[in-house]
Amino acid sequence: MSEKDKIIEQKIKRGGIFDFKEVYQFTYRWLNEEDYTVEERKYTEEVTGDSKKVEIQWIATRQF
Fold first, then answer.
1. 3-state secondary structure of 6
2. Would you say residue 42 has pLDDT above 70?
3. Distance in angstroms (rounded) separating the CA atoms of residues 37 and 39
4. How many CB atoms lie under 10 A from the CB of residue 42?
């Protein structure tokens, strides 16, 4: 039976304008390059006026 360790849990909070698509793609590519399999369990967007709140939950696993 394999053991599972929680390596990192990270939240990013950023106000202002930035390229969210680039951050998303960079993080996903980095995990893949490090031999992780990424499963997106949750993706929600909440638009309020001219702002947007995005919540993503990924589960990344790697075979040793």
1. coil
2. yes
3. 7
4. 9
